[in-house]
Amino acid sequence: MQAEWRFPNRATPAGSSAYYSVRFAPAPLRHDLAALHAWRHQVRAIRHEVSDPGVARLKLQWWRAEVGRTFAGEPRHPLSQVLAPAVERHRLPAEPFHRIADRVEAEILRRQPADETELGAACEDDLGALFELLARCHGRGEPETLGAARRLGGFCARVYLIRDSGALARQGRAPLPADRLRALGLSVQALGEAEHRRRLPELLAPAAKAAWDTQAAAEQGPRLPASLRVRARILAALLAELERSGLAVGEQRIGLTPLRKLWLAWREAQR
What we know:
The chain has helices spanning about 15-25, 30-50, 55-70, 80-90, 95-110, 115-135, 145-165, 165-170, 180-185, 190, 195, 200-220, 225-245, 260-270. By secondary structure, it is mainly alpha-helical. It has a single domain (about 1-270), classed as Farnesyl Diphosphate Synthase (Orthogonal Bundle), CATH 1.10.600.10. The termini are far apart.
């Protein structure tokens, strides 16, 4: 069963942005990076697989406990058994795993970020925490580098939030912070109505600018490993594509073809 968590796995399927990110990493690291992607994938999947918040939190707590068992050398889940050697090999800390889990719990409980600052922190607690772990696997543990990795992961999370805004609104989840909704005279429930979803292009314009600003801040830091830059390069192209569409994400999901992702990944890896 452990083989299913090696590269490529369900979190890094062929043609995905995550796939190309791992594919352009050094070969000895690929299984470890794929296992980290899979851990985040498994934990975040709880939101969709379990409708009852109480049950979802219990399942999430099991994974939190599994982090403790993994760091103690007693993993139970086949994924954890693949991940445990990577944790030891790269001296990974437990804290980023818990930040990812905490973010999932906040989403299960429908806790809306209060403002732009909290939204940015939420994005860094998700993909930003994963990017920190990925950077550590590349042997990069300097505080400045890890900070840049978290910001770059936060940028990617912001782009996914914009891309998925229409679907999130239909599910009763707002892609905007609470203070922004109040300023617009909207509620999370109102944003799910078709008439308000049609306003998403104008509502998301500040979110797109914030994403670009986050990317610029990340790029002012130390140069990151190619695998992280590849993911961000693909997501930057996706954000540009979303903007070319007029941020018309209310009723459609816009993406890039695998061939274009491959081309972007190859070019970034050559830099």
